[in-house]
Amino acid sequence: MRNTLTVVGWVGTDPSSGLSADGVPYVSFRLSSDDGYFDRDAREWVTSEANWYTVKAFRSLAQNVSMSVEKGQRVIVHGRLEIRRWSNGEKSGTDVCLMAHSVGHDLSTGTSAYTRTAGAKTGGRGEEQNGSDNGGFGGTQAAQAGAEENDGSEPKDGAESSLTAAGAGAGSGAGAGSGTAKPGASGSGGDAPF
């Protein structure tokens, strides 16, 4: 796989979810990551300017992320890096997207409880989409067939471009269950209890 990246950072926005024009479930959120370190000579934490990513996920990974991840939590995201230029007439910019293959909580800052989702299999990316269970997300048979044809990484027929244009975003991959966060364990900071 080319251009893969693993990023550890803080969820900067609540995950936004919906269905693409093809009926493929998606979720998108912003992730902030910086390279902080402790300077022993100065005896203080030094942080660099944060890098911001748009994290996008599809299908069962999208469902699991929407049920497990909240703004302010520290997560680890592994996926394919995509850099896109955009403009809306008077403004233009660059969007750095991480098309997620896997998303999970960073357990160095909090706790999480794993719950396997119905229909999840232990195989590779996208395999859990082959079953009939879509977890109540409302995906269509055509979307599931599309997952089989394109390895489960992106919607077919330009659905991603329509989501990106709408500002909603989407991404790739499928997780065999990102799990559900333990209530009250947001992982949003604080010292470890030991």
Describe the model.
This protein has helices at 59-68, 141-149, 159-166, and strands at residues 4-11, 16-19, 25-33, 37-39, 44-46, 51-58, 74-87, 92-105. A hairpin with a 5-residue loop joins strand 2 (16-19) and strand 3 (25-33). By secondary structure, the protein is an alpha+beta fold. It is built from three helices and eight strands. Helices cover 14% and strands 32% of the residues. The protein has a five-stranded mixed β-barrel. A two-stranded antiparallel ribbon has the order 4-5. The model is unreliable at 123-153 and 156-194 (pLDDT under 50). It has a single domain (4-166), classed as OB fold (Dihydrolipoamide Acetyltransferase, E2P) (Beta Barrel), CATH 2.40.50. The protein is globular, with a radius of gyration of 17 Å.
Question: Can you describe this structure in just a few lines?
Answer:
This protein has three helices and eight strands; from the N terminus they run ββββββαββαα.
Topology summary:
Elements: E1 4-11, E2 16-19, E3 25-33, E4 37-39, E5 44-46, E6 51-58, H1 59-68, E7 74-87, E8 92-105, H2 141-149, H3 159-166
Parallel strand pairs: 6-8
Antiparallel strand pairs: 1-3, 1-7, 2-3, 3-6, 4-5, 7-8
Keywords: DNA-binding
GO molecular function, one term: DNA binding
Protein name: Single-stranded DNA-binding protein
